[in-house]
Amino acid sequence: MKNNHTAVTSFILLGFTNRNDILVVLFIIFLLIYVFTLLGNSCIIAVTFFNNGLHKPMYFFLGNLAFLDIIYSTVIAPKMLSTFLMKDKTITYSACVVQMFLFAVLITSESVLLAIMAYDRYLAICNPLRYPAIMTTRFCTLLVCGAYLNGLIQSLFHTSFTFHLTFCKTEISYFFCDMPPLLKLSCSDTTINEIILFTFCGFNEGGSAFVVLISYFFIILSLLKIHSEHGRSKAASTCVSHFLVFILYYGSLFFIYLRPGSSRSMEADRVASVVYTVAIPMLNPIIYSLRNSDFKASFHKLLSCRFSLL
């Protein structure tokens, strides 16, 4: 049978809205969010790197989380910002492939990293005597490398299967190239893609969420056994921020990626995707730094050292 579909060379990112009167306002808002994301997460990396007192597993993982937030915000934000001001909202086919591949690598890696951070807090609170022997530098490095490798493998599957499809539409009702909106544009059978998306995301996000929930179940049990109010609040302060990120991050991911394609709404997906692509990378520096006395002390110390050198 002869294929009448022409090869797609580019897509059109429709973005958030077609209301021209608010595009400049949206541009300013999201530009400020992006700048704050870069500055806040760069600050976390700098503080954890330059302060020897923070060369601990918890801050090693936090530094990697900040690195992921910087990179995957940068994968999305520049092109998204350009769609607010420029009439040309096209993204080339190859650029769309690269954007989706990198985004899938980073977001999958971050899901696993959040689970690793929960496991780290479980060991620190529930098994403090064994914690130094288990969470060695080598083991922490292997855990982070495993998270990145897992993201790379899953992204290869998602990207190759998605762009193996034939597309008969080019207008993406979204602000970046992601799997659900791209599947909507295909005139091929996307059943296999839906199964792969549900299976991989269910395994990755579901498995990571299970690790987080189990870790915090045992953490709560341990906190209840601490008789000292000061000791309990100090131990809890390191976990509350992480659990808040967990609820926002995984909640939005489950909403988007673990629903059947027939029940998808691009409008609802756009709102949810803003949470984990824009809000979470911006909030992470605030949530983790404001609730962490050691980090705040190290930040003030770093600032005082820098100003004294001027």
From TrEMBL:
The keyword Nucleus does not apply. It is found in: Cell membrane; Membrane. The keyword Cytoplasm does not apply. Residues 40-288 form the G-protein coupled receptors family 1 profile domain. It is a multi-pass membrane protein. Keywords: Cell membrane, G-protein coupled receptor, Membrane, Olfaction, Receptor, Sensory transduction, Transducer, Transmembrane, Transmembrane helix. This is Olfactory receptor. It comes from Pyxicephalus adspersus (African bullfrog).
